[in-house]
Design goal:
With 280 residues, this protein is α/β, with parallel strands linked by helices. It has one domain: Nitrilase/N-carbamoyl-D-aminoacid amidohydrolase (4-Layer Sandwich). The protein is 27% helix and 29% strand. The protein has seven helices and 16 strands. The protein has a six-stranded mixed sheet with strand order 5-4-3-2-1-16. Helix 1 links the parallel strand 1 and strand 2. Helix 1 packs parallel to helix 3. The radius of gyration is 18 Å and the shape is globular. The relative contact order is 0.17.
Amino acid sequence: MSQTFRAACVQMRTGTDICENLRSAETLIREAHGRGAAFIATPEVTVLFEAESDRLFAQVHTEEDDPSLRRLRALAQELGVWLLIGSMAIKVGERQCANRSFLIGPGGQVVASYDKIHMFDVDLPNGETYRESRNFRRGERAVVADLPWGKLGLSVCYDLRFPQLYRALAKAGASFLTIPAAFTHTTGMAHWHVLQRARAIETGCYVIAPAQGGHHANGRHTFGHSLVVAPWGEIIAEAGTEPCVITADIDPQRVADARGRVPSLLHDKPISVSIAPDVA
């Protein structure tokens, strides 16, 4: 774990037209490659941002048959890069998808995949309603994969709010965490930066968080502000709200340095909770 590498976050404004989304993703991925990135990550729902069930299920495919995944695998092979597709809707049943993240190697092979575990089901005060579990089946396992520079822990968006996932990934050897997202503008304004920094500090990992940003064709408003956070918690690259590429040079030695200064991963203790008697 001694080799420094350049990572890139591709920030997008994915809509409901798959062909246009793929063109946008490819343009930005090529830009990231041109800026020297060996590891490139795209946001959640890279290929299609569609919440309406009938329209979603009319356009999804199984992993084996998905033409968008084939195109992105070919692009990774052409460029010779590690490509993390933040997530795609992948058909896993007649009326059910997985929100699946793909790590594609420079040979174009799918090295690892992860299905989002935590489903975002909420009614927001501003009237926005999200029912991710209506269309998506939750994942059941965390995933760590090997990169040439160390191990990568995979997650997606709402997973960010569950620190136990990231602690498990770090204890399984992850030095880098990917948190691709389509965070709402409302929750992003309040929590995006502090949660990303907290996950880095708690684990001593780099956090690479490509995001969706802006007003989308489906009416959603996402926060943007793709981030790369160093293991000590400082933000070393940040986007605004427009589609763009940000890059940061990643030094794996900083993971060891941060964990040496605060070795909290070695200090976990079993916790039991006592409920005090009600004396009112």
